[in-house]
């Protein structure tokens, strides 16, 4: 019973680990990069409130335009995707929410051959000094993962010439 109460407390209180996940995958059949962010929902609500001085309650509904606006703004302010020296615009595709997390999806059309990808990612780093952002990158047969932290929030993937 004690263990159950401890586990229950961990799921309803603030979590002790500050981790976000960014997945970047090139979909050859669609000539598009799919970029997804997985973030603890309560942390994202907190950082939006602090940074933009507004409260947003993240829900499964797509009916609140303010929610979409702040999700897009926060990601655009904290993530840059550069392919072969060009910063590419990302198109918001939507969000998915489960118990504690939110997935935010973007697409980046790109049909040229890619030789280098640079990622600048400070998602959630403005809220927690111990934040870790895990970046998983897939392009063709290349699959790499890297952990980014405050002060070390940029990564390059050289894919050859």
Itemize the secondary structure elements and their pairings.
Elements: H1 2-12, E1 19-27, E2 32-40, H2 41-52, H3 65-78, E3 79-83, E4 86-87, E5 91-97, E6 101-109, E7 116-121, E8 132-139, E9 142-148, E10 154-158
Question: What overall form do the CA principal axes indicate?
Answer: globular
Main sheet: strand order: 5-6-2-1-8-9
Derived structural class: alpha+beta
Low-confidence blocks of residues: 1-13
Helix content: 10-25%
| Count of discrete alpha- or pi-helical segments spanning 4 or more residues | 3
Major sheet details: 6 strands, mixed
Mean pLDDT: 89
Number of domains: 1
Q: Tell me the span between the first and last alpha carbons.
A: 59 Å
> How large, in whole angstroms, is the Cα Rg?
17 Å
Number of strands: 10
Report the order of strands and helices: HEEHHEEEEEEEE
Strand content: 35-45%
What does this structure look like?
The protein has one domain (20-158). The termini are far apart. It has helices at residues 2-12, 41-52, 65-78, and strands at residues 19-27, 32-40, 79-83, 86-87, 91-97, 101-109, 116-121, 132-139, 142-148, 154-158. 23% of the residues lie in helices and 42% in strands. It has 161 residues and is α+β, with helices and mostly antiparallel strands. β5 (91-97) and β6 form a beta hairpin. The model is unreliable at 1-13 (pLDDT under 50). The chain has three helices and ten strands. The strands form two sheets. The protein has a six-stranded mixed β-sheet. The relative contact order is 0.21. The chain is globular and about 45 Å long. The longest helix has 14 residues, at 65-78.
């Amino acid at each position: 019973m004690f263990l159950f109460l401890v586990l229950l407390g961990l799921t309803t209180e603030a979590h002790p680990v500050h981790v976000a996940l960014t997945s970047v995958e090139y979909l050859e059949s669609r000539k598009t990069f799919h970029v997804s962010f997985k973030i603890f929902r309560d942390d994202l609500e907190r950082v939006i409130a602090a940074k933009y001085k507004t409260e947003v309650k993240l829900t499964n509904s797509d009916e609140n335009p303010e929610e979409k606006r702040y999700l897009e703004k926060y990601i655009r302010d904290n993530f840059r995707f550069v392919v072969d020296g060009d910063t590419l615009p990302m198109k918001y595709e939507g969000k998915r929410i489960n118990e504690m997390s939110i997935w935010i999806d973007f697409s980046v059309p790109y049909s040229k051959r890619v030789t280098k990808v640079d990622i600048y990612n400070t998602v959630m780093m403005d809220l927690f000094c111990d934040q870790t952002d895990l970046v998983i990158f897939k392009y063709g047969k290349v699959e790499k993962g890297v952990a980014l932290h405050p002060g070390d929030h940029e990564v390059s993937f050289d894919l050859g010439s």
